[in-house]
Amino acid sequence: MSFRQAVESTAAIRDSFREGLGSVRNVDRTRLRCSNPRRLRGSVNLDDALRLALPNDPRWDYAIGISQRSHSDRAVWLEVHPASSLHVGEVLNKLRWLKGWLASDAPELQGLPAHFCWVATGSVSFRRGSREEKRIAQEGIRFPSKLLNLDEF
Q1: Helices 131-138 and 88-105, interaxial angle, to 10°?
Q2: Burial of 80 (0-12, 13-18, 19+ CB in 10 A)
Q3: What are the extents of the domains in the chain?
Q4: How far apart are CA 101 and CA 99, in angstroms?
């Protein structure tokens, strides 16, 4: 299934699909790199799309579709957030929310191969091998970076 089909079959975000990185705020787009933009299948700003319906939920920021060579598209789930040890719990809470939302409201999106990424809004104040890294890795989140290379997916 394509990323676009999965988004359009999800009632809550059906109208939020944008081509390429069109859903990503300009300030956040500067934190992403992609040498082959044709691989970008589209994007959704989950935070904006679900703000009215779920105003008090810890919403995840973005979903970005990336084409794979021989399979269905994959979803890169992107959270743009400060990256200090004080924020690890917040990001993990957002990830738990996202996984629950996918299971209950977006099974087609949940069915796509997924990567959960944390992009730091500033410097990353914890190191590789730290307790914080182990906590996020255990939940499937990549170590935060200031710049995410979408070519890696």
Answers
A1: 0
A2: buried
A3: 3-152
A4: 5
Mean residue pLDDT across the chain:
96
Select from 129, 103, 128, 127 the least CA-distant residue to 114.
Answer: 103
User: Taking 90 as the threshold, does the pLDDT of residue 72 lie above it?
Assistant: no
Instruction: Tokens for 43, please give them.
Output: 């994007």
- Indicate the pTM of the whole model: 0.95
Distance CA 24, CA 118 (A): 14
Quote the DSSP letter at residue 3.
Answer: H
Q: Nearest-5° angle of CA 145, CA 151, CA 152?
A: 65
Tell me the three state secondary structure of residue 128.
coil
Residues 85-141 pLDDT 10s: 999 999 999 999 999 999 999 999 999 999 999 999 999 999 999 999 999 999 999
Inter-residue contact 42 to 16 (CB < 8 Å): no
